[in-house]
TrEMBL record:
Domain Purple acid phosphatase C-terminal: 245-307
Residues in coiled coil: none
Cross-referenced SUPFAM superfamilies: Metallo-dependent phosphatases
Protein known as: Purple acid phosphatase
PANTHER family reported for this sequence: PURPLE ACID PHOSPHATASE
Record lineage: Eukaryota, Metazoa, Ecdysozoa, Nematoda, Chromadorea
Organism superkingdom: Eukaryota
Organism per entry: Acrobeloides nanus
InterPro entries according to UniProt: Calcineurin-like_PHP, Metallo-depent_PP-like, MPP_PAP, PAPs_C
């Protein structure tokens, strides 16, 4: 039997959060208590966008106040961020770009980057180049895509040393929130699948066998079964062992100015767990073959409300050739699409959104 207390003591810890006011106090308290422990150097924090609602509020005073509140934690622990749509300040993300220094990607741009830590290759990816391509042009999307393919190719070739590939980005490919059109919107289908000369991201993630992806944007927590190309791989006794496709988690539940997010019913067959409590996600990196993920509910007194193990054999990667050998169920066909998407005009009804429409 697994001794979780022993594993917790030995594991590296990665906390993935989108923290705003409701979660900030307990997040600070639990994090500060950890700073004095021997494992503190093994911890990093990742924010997947919409960092302060907004960094540029009142000419940057909002961002100043937020980062001061975070300073007791982020002064000692690596603080990795990626831009969300709320980081757009109508000045090409200038507040975001000038506040944070991220790993160099060769483009002088902190909106996408990568780094290795322990057995994980981390990828920070911008979805906002897609969301704002009308404002800032096509080249940021294309530059990131070319960089991403080269980076993933190298990471895939290095799996013997660094076996896991993990990405984090702001906007999701999939979600099932009632109060959002995001997962049938033109922007999100563009991010996932591409449009005209703009390439989507999912094909690269599948080609190079990305293991795990974290998303924000939706103000809720939603864990998906391994999914790719409108196929859901949950037909084995443990779909998260030697997964046939990437595992995706929406972790945007740390607080919001617009209240709790609601979910559509019935759930999509791709959705394994949905929680709209305010909280944050912790990833415990146990070793080269095992990861443990917990969702912490602030509203439930910092209790664990969801947890899963991701495990795999060394050198396993969830690539299409392996997926072809596995059983799956198909996503239901979408019933709606955004009228801006000329590829689906006339193909589907625009009258009513279907919960399985992603």
């Amino acid at each position: 039997m697994t001794n979780w207390n022993e594993i917790r003591d030995k594991s590296k810890l990665f906390t993935h959060v989108n923290t705003e006011r409701e979660s900030l106090f307990l997040f600070q308290r639990s994090s500060l208590a950890y700073m004095g422990s021997p494992q503190a150097w093994e911890k990093i924090f990742v924010f997947s966008g919409d960092i302060a609602y907004d960094l540029h509020t009142e000419n940057g005073i909002g961002g100043d106040n937020f980062t001061r509140q975070m300073e007791p934690v982020i002064a000692y622990v690596p603080y990795m961020v990626i831009a969300g749509n709320h980081e757009d300040d109508l000045k090409n993300f200038s507040n975001y770009k000038n506040r944070f220094v991220m790993p160099d990607n060769g483009y002088g741009d902190n909106q996408f980057y990568s780094f290795d830590l322990g057995p994980i290759h981390f990828l920070g990816v911008s979805t906002e180049y897609y969301g704002f391509f009308n404002e800032y042009g096509h080249m940021p999307v294309i530059n990131q895509y070319n960089w991403l393919e080269n980076d993933l190719k190298q990471a895939d070739a290095n799996r013997a040393a660094v076996p896991w590939i993990l990405s984090y980005q702001h906007r999701p490919f999939y979600c099932s929130n009632e109060n959002s059109e995001e997962c049938t919107s033109f922007e999100n289908t563009l991010i996932k699948s591409g449009f005209e000369d703009l390439p989507g991201l999912e094909s690269l993630y599948l080609k190079y066998g990305m293991d795990l992806g974290f998303w924000g944007h939706e103000h809720s927590y939603e864990r998906f079964w391994p999914s790719s190309g409108r196929q859901i791989f949950n037909q084995t006794s443990n779909p998260y062992h030697n997964a046939a496709a990437p595992t995706y988690i929406v972790t945007g539940a740390a607080g919001c100015h617009s209240g709790h997010a609601l979910f559509e019913n019935p759930p999509s067959p791709a959705s394994a767990s949905r929680i709209n409590d305010y909280g944050y996600t912790m990833l415990h990196v146990v070793n080269k073959t095992h990861l443990f993920i917990e969702q912490i509910s602030v509203e439930a007194g910092n209790q664990v409300v969801d947890q899963i193990w991701l495990s795999k054999d060394l050198q396993h990667a969830p690539k299409p050739d392996y997926a072809k050998t596995q059983q799956f169920i198909q996503f239901p066909e979408p019933k709606v699409c955004n009228p801006r998407d000329v590829q689906c005009r006339g193909k589907y009804s625009h009258k009513k959104r279907n919960p399985a429409s992603f």
